[in-house]
């Protein structure tokens, strides 16, 4: 069975984001846009963080996206994340 985190990573790959490591953090890059997936334990939620350039990503200047609680239906979570990434 695939974990929700693996499904999110597959979504990044489906949307042509490539995995990179910047300052010991895994990020995903496509056309100069950088995404970082973070799990917030206190909120039991994932958030996608955004940087608009390598320089911002390198300086860890990411903007937070929406929160996605792990209690949300997995298909709905992936669909909403897809829409957020495409429209950001």
Description:
The protein is α+β, with helices and mostly antiparallel strands. It is 34% helix and 38% strand. The chain contains 3 helices and 5 strands, in the order αββββαβα. It has a 5-stranded antiparallel beta sheet. α1 runs parallel beside α3. The longest helix has 14 residues. The N and C termini lie far apart (30 Å).
Question: Total number of β-strand segments?
Answer: 5
SSE arrangement, N to C: HEEEEHEH
What profile does the largest beta sheet have? 5 strands, antiparallel
Q: In what range is the share of β-strand residues?
A: 35-45%
Q: Gap between N and C termini, in Å?
A: 30 Å
Envelope shape: globular
Overall pLDDT confidence? 95
Oligomer state equals: single chain
Unreliable residue runs: none
Task: Break the fold down into its secondary structure elements and pairings.
Blueprint: H1 4-14, E1 18-22, E2 25-30, E3 33-40, E4 45-51, H2 54-58, E5 63-69, H3 74-87
Antiparallel strand pairs: 1-2, 2-3, 3-4, 4-5
């Amino acid at each position: 069975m695939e974990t929700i985190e693996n499904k999110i990573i597959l979504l990044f790959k489906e949307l042509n984001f490539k995995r990179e490591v910047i300052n010991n953090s895994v990020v995903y890059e496509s056309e100069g846009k950088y995404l970082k997936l973070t799990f917030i334990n206190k909120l039991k939620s994932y958030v996608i963080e955004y940087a608009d350039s390598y320089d911002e990503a390198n300086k860890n200047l990411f903007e937070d996206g929406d929160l996605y609680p792990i209690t949300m239906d997995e298909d709905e979570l992936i669909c909403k994340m897809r829409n957020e990434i495409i429209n950001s």
